[in-house]
Write a structure and sequence with these properties.
By secondary structure, the chain is mainly β. It is built from one helix and eight strands; from the N terminus they run H-E-E-E-E-E-E-E-E. An eight-stranded antiparallel barrel has the order 1-2-3-4-5-6-7-8. The chain is globular, with a radius of gyration of 19 Å. The N and C termini lie far apart (41 Å).
Length: 161
């Protein structure tokens, strides 16, 4: 293989690896999409509920593009399992997500589900506002209760050791 061909292959492989890593992780260092001025959501976030002041941890994973993907959240208590759901881009720096978790009964088994529907505005490279509603249903799907809240989020970014 000629030297110039090896260099081109090495550069292409490096660019492809970087592009893949950025698409998958939503790197906080690449939080502005392609110079468009729109901040991106993919990555991990610490969200503090404005009403309860509880802290939730969530991760938004990119799919094949920066327009949709998978979301998982953990709750600050042991009565709610991790949630599972999807997110999508709705505008410049704005997103929607829906995720569902089990609520655990006193017997240690799933007693009901809680579904969150959120509108998210990424306000800066490492900040976002959440506006969400939740619905609790019995396992048979019958309605129990619902509510809404807002929250402030900060991106969980890499910190030097």
């Amino acid at each position: 293989m000629r030297k110039s061909t090896r260099i081109k292959v090495a550069v292409f492989a490096g660019v492809a690896a970087l592009a893949t890593a950025t698409a998958v992780t939503g790197s906080a260092n690449a939080a502005v999409e392609g110079g468009s001025g729109c901040y991106t959501l993919p990555g991990s976030w610490k969200v503090v509920d404005d009403n309860s002041h509880e802290t939730f941890l969530g991760s938004y994973y990119g799919a094949t593009s920066a327009t949709a993907g998978v979301v998982n959240f953990t709750s600050p208590n042991n009565t709610t399992t991790a949630s599972h759901g999807e997110w999508r881009l709705t505008g410049c720096g704005t997103y929607s997500d829906t995720d569902t978790a089990f609520l655990i009964g006193t017997d240690g088994k799933a007693a009901s589900t809680i579904t969150f529907k959120a509108n998210i505005t990424v306000t800066g490279k490492n900040t976002a506002n959440f506006d969400f509603a939740f619905t609790i249903n019995n396992l048979d799907g019958s309605f129990v209760t619902s509510g809404a809240s807002t929250g402030k989020a900060t991106r969980i970014a890499v910190q030097p050791r």
